[in-house]
Write a structure and sequence with these properties.
binds 5-O-phosphono-beta-D-ribofuranosylamine, two-stranded antiparallel ribbon, alpha/beta, about 35% helix
């Protein structure tokens, strides 16, 4: 059986991309990265792909007449590379229902908080960690979820907690959460690649391959 082919969408440094590259190359994740697509030029994530001879392209949203034309280009590239799972790794754009329909239940994202807390429109990057600290929360964490038409509302695959220390800044908290992200994102992709995830409405059930 051919390996699951991943299409990774990025917009920044790509540390989550790196953890996925490393776990695919080590064989921990039974999948291969077919293509990396960036929404920005010259980002470090593209350098990481280049270092590992992974095909990578930059598709700039403002080069297209509208959102659908931009997403049609993404869909065309993903289909050309025979992608079976779309992985959002620090990708900052919200995908439209048009794109979600094209890859229904085959798009996953990682969010640096314990969804449903500190998630949704406006909650991204350092803003998430600042909100956690300002609220006085004692734990936070990271969440891997399927992507649906909402923002951070898709069925949850994996979550892991992280303590919030009294002297934390958004930067120190982000660094601690990122460490956890680099471990649960490969775990979630591995479960998907092994056919061990089943979506039941808003819930994800872990199943043995036979049950799937
Ligand atoms: C991560 O914290 C991720 O949860 C969020 O964006 C950040 C991206 O980091 N969506 P990187 O580009 O993978 O280093």
């Amino acid at each position: 059986m051919s390996k699951l082919r991943l299409g990774i969408l990025v917009s920044g440094g790509g540390s989550n991309l790196q953890s996925i590259i490393d776990k695919c190359e080590s064989g921990y994740i039974p999948a291969e990265i077919a293509i990396v697509i960036s929404s920005k030029e010259g980002i470090y994530a593209l350098k990481r792909a280049e270092k590992h001879n992974i095909p990578a392209v930059t598709v700039l949203p403002n080069k297209y007449r509208d959102r659908q034309a931009y997403e049609d280009e993404l869909i065309k590239i993903l289909r050309n590379y025979d992608v079976g799972l779309v992985v959002l790794a620090g990708y900052i754009r919200v995908l439209s229902p048009h794109f979600i329909r094209a890859y229904r239940n085959r798009i996953i994202n990682i969010h640096p908080a314990l969804i449903p807390s500190f998630s949704g429109m406006g909650y991204y990057g350092a803003k998430v960690h600042k909100a956690v600290i300002d609220y006085g929360a004692k734990i936070t964490g990271a969440t891997v979820h399927f992507v649906d038409e909402g923002t951070d509302t898709g069925p949850i695959i994996l979550q892991r907690t992280v303590p919030v220390e009294d002297d934390d800044t958004p930067e120190t908290l982000a660094a601690r959460v990122l460490k956890v992200e680099h471990s649960i994102y490969p775990d979630a992709i591995k479960l998907y690649a092994e056919g061990k995830l089943k979506i039941n409405g808003s819930r994800v059930k872990r199943v043995s391959k036979e049950e799937f």
